[in-house]
Amino acid sequence: MSFHPSFRLTSLAAGLLLAVTATAQPVFDQPANATFKGEVVSRGENVVPGSTADVVGRGFVPGQKVSLLRGDSVLNTQPLVVDADGNFKTQLSIPADAVPGTHPVVVRASQPAAATVLKLRVSPQLPLSGQAQFATQSNKLVPGLYQSAYSAASNAVFVTSAVGRPPVTQSQLLKLDPKSLKVIKAITPAQVPGSTNGAVYAVYGVGVDDANGNVWVTNTRQNSIAVYRQKDLSLVHQFPVDTVPHARDVVVDGTHGKVFASATGEDHLSVFDAKTFKELPQVTLESGVDDGKFTPMSLVLDEKGGKLFTVSIGTPEAAVIDVASGKVDKVIDLGNSISASGVAFDAARNRLYVASQGTDNLLIVDVASGKVLHDVPVGAGALNVAFDDASCLAYVSNRGAGTVTVVNGDGKVVANLDGGTLPNHVRADGKGNVFAVNKSRGAEDPKGDRITRITPNQ
Q1: Are strands 450-456 and 434-438 parallel, antiparallel or unpaired?
Q2: What CATH architecture does domain 39-122 belong to?
Q3: Do 352 and 345 meet the contact criterion of CB atoms below 8 Å apart?
Q4: Could you tell me the fold of the domain covering 131-456?
Q5: What is the pTM of this model?
């Protein structure tokens, strides 16, 4: 007795289907449970086209196999295996033709199945240029330089420094000669009362009060601020701990006798009387972003115009504040801005300059209309910006790129200067000079812990 051919083929197909079904991985296989907390970050201060990025994952399930995908391309040749602690790490090569921006890299895990997205930022790479157009003078100071401020009344530059994380025991307030950049006077802040670990009232932000002969500083680690005498750096007044949450920047309006400090992490500016030191009503900053929080960073004052400006690190926004009333005039949508931190103002053109760490750019904004006029790529970690009224140039300190980029009012890069190791802050003196301070990668770093005066050649 023989089998019909069609029956034999049908039986063979059924057998193959059963075999495949028995061995193939189901499309909806075992997923990770609700306790899965996997997250992935990229490390590297200056990830640019043609470089590499260190990628680190944590909170995964031990033994999981991980693939990284950009579009349809798998970026790792072999799956990464999560270690016994739930971690993995790898190094990705960034193609030379990669377009700068934040790239969504899908992180796909199996056994059990899970996925997340790595926001991999590729920064623009600007070559050094325009050095011949500027004169520079530099001097090595002390570790941990943070900010500087120029006093016309004292003809001096005041510089803050603080080293390391809490407890911070090494910090100085410096007074410099603006021409030689030599230290005239230096003091170490007082130890925090009740401290058992040697912590001092470390100084970070700095602003000058020429009307009263003082210099104000922020004590970020103690959520406070302090006032010193410009003449000899003697302490005039130390505010209590927890006066200003994570105090960052401080500016003084001599015309109205007010002092403003940004409470980073909160949604307000703290305000004080410049003479009596009495705390005044706060300036509340309301975000126009749904569920957003306006978290202020840098401050810049237009004293003649009676306006104060700040930017939010938490939302793509800038705020315009009327100094006399303490009310917010308007909040400006910045658009292409992630982690805005630096702000400067051009009074002649009524324009804001905003530096954003997360988008590596400088935005030039018309204050009246709120329109973004120019979006200028400047380099990794655009942290702070200063505007020089004499030359009508903006200077941007790019912490990751290690540069100071000079941009004109039309959004054109006129120079990209070597900023040393980890440029941290820039400040104009109103006379055509800009002072830049940078940090270091150790005591032996020849390009670290320096202040540099930058002046356009005539």
Answers
A1: antiparallel
A2: Sandwich (2.60)
A3: yes
A4: Methylamine Dehydrogenase; Chain H (2.130.10)
A5: 0.93
